[in-house]
Design brief:
This protein has one domain: Porin, CATH 2.40.160. The protein is built from two helices and 19 strands. The protein has a 16-stranded antiparallel barrel with strand order 2-5-6-7-8-9-10-11-12-13-14-15-16-17-18-19. The chain is globular.
Length: 422
């Protein structure tokens, strides 16, 4: 399911700002260090199954577990919307991560770092425990940093929408789960992604960040292009992305972080003239405010060809059957009370997809296709920090889905589990 790939990418984006590490060994000017996490959660889902298709209307484009192999349905009444009920043991917003890096000083002011991060889920695909658990090398880059700025080359977090996922990670689901994503398959989960947040993902790229001047920093890069499979399968040029951030301390008890980012990419048809092309674009914005134990973050995004879960999504939420790109947006707010031993988090967000002129027009058989209108989610979490390295989380998320022709789906997700970090 597309959510799975989206969520994984997004979760990785969020992990970067809070990364800690342990130094393993120093030898001949090199330092070997490691960071990572291991966790497990009980995840319970209950609510509506995917809306049923009728003789005149077919819902599409979003919703929860559209391709579920385990709906609760009455075969004698196929016209009645099925239900969902599922309990699993699974990874959280972030999967198990093992990161390892090598670092040394090139000069007195310039540091060179090489880093790999390997990710793995704990639950198997489709509840089949005999299937192997693959390891995904999510990051692998070289970074040089000094007073002149930061240059990073290799596989890394992309820039568009990373600020929104950082809000979710820091104040919402950094030690939790949120939306479980693909209930019948493996994860990791999604936090608030798809509900006001769109994921940036990871990709091969070359990125430069300027030194911070009066709190302002510009990060710009080029990334390996993404094709929209089944719609726009050809690309010509790398994909530019950029983010401008502003940071300012508020006395000794607070800080503010603001961000604005964007993405742009041209896509083409196979075998056609270059004039037969489309433009995917997106803009993201928001900020975080911390005043003592009170933290709040807000974020928004708007674009074309983005989809619901991650930028440049291969789905009907990003384009129609004639390959015309759809516009979409999202809005998200997340609050946190951070006490010494525990956090209380609450958030809400909505992701919307806009219709094209022909979306509600019946086809030759008289069937109309009902596009997802919005996905709205509210979340609550309690996190107890047993120690600096061991954390317990209980979180609940309520998701509401609505389609343009009236279909609806309402689901609740309840999660609890532990995370060890280093």
């Amino acid at each position: 399911m597309r959510v799975k790939g989206v969520v994984v990418l997004l979760a990785l984006v969020a992990a970067s700002p809070a990364r800690a590490e342990i130094s393993v060994v120093h030898d001949k000017g090199w330092e070997l260090f490691s960071d990572g996490r291991i966790g497990a959660f009980v995840s319970y889902t209950r609510g509506d199954g995917y809306p049923v298709s009728t003789a005149t209307v077919t819902p599409f484009g979003g919703g929860n577990n559209a391709n579920s192999a385990n709906p609760i349905a009455d075969p004698m009444h196929p016209e009645i919307q099925p239900r969902l009920e599922s309990m699993r043991i699974r990874s959280g917003f972030l999967g198990n991560i093992f990161g390892v890096g090598f670092r040394r000083n090139l000069t007195e002011s310039t540091t060179l770092t090489g880093y790999f991060a390997m990710w793995s889920d704990i639950e198997t695909e489709s509840r089949r425990k005999y299937l192997p658990m693959p390891m995904d090398v999510r990051e692998g880059y070289v970074k040089a940093e000094g007073p002149w700025g930061i240059l990073k080359v290799g596989r890394q977090l992309t820039l568009f929408s990373r600020g929104a996922v950082e809000v979710d990670f820091l104040y919402g689901h950094g030690y939790g789960l949120g939306y479980p994503g693909n209930i019948d398959s493996n994860g990791p989960a999604a936090g608030h992604i798809g509900y006001g947040v769109i994921g940036p993902g990871f990709g091969a790229g070359m990125v430069y960040a300027t030194p911070a001047v009066a709190g302002l920093q510009l990060t710009a890069g080029i990334f390996d292009p993404v094709e929209l499979q089944g719609a726009w399968p050809r690309t010509k040029y790398v994909r530019p992305e950029a983010e401008l951030t502003f940071d300012r301390a508020i006395g000794s008890f607070g800080k503010v972080h603001l961000f604005a980012n964007g993405v742009f990419q041209k896509v083409y048809q196979n075998g056609d003239l270059d004039s037969h092309s489309a433009t995917v674009y997106g803009a993201g914005y928001g900020g975080r405010l911390e005043l003592g134990m009170f933290h709040i973050g807000v974020a928004g995004h708007y674009g074309q060809g983005l989809g619901l879960y991650y930028a440049l999504e291969t789905s009907e939420a990003a384009y129609d059957e004639m390959f015309r790109l759809r516009k979409s947006d999202g809005y998200y707010a997340q609050a946190q009370l951070a006490f010494r031993k525990f956090d209380i988090n609450a958030g809400a967000g909505i992701s919307r997809v806009y219709e094209l002129p022909t979306d509600d027009v019946p086809d030759s058989t008289g069937v109309s296709r009902s596009l997802i209108k919005y996905q709205f989610g509210t979340s609550h979490a309690f996190v107890y920090h047993i120690s600096d390295q061991f954390h317990f989380d209980v979180d609940v998320m309520r998701a509401n889905y609505r389609w343009y022709l009236g279909q609806k789906q309402d689901d609740t997700f309840v999660n609890a589990g532990f995370t060890m970090t280093w």
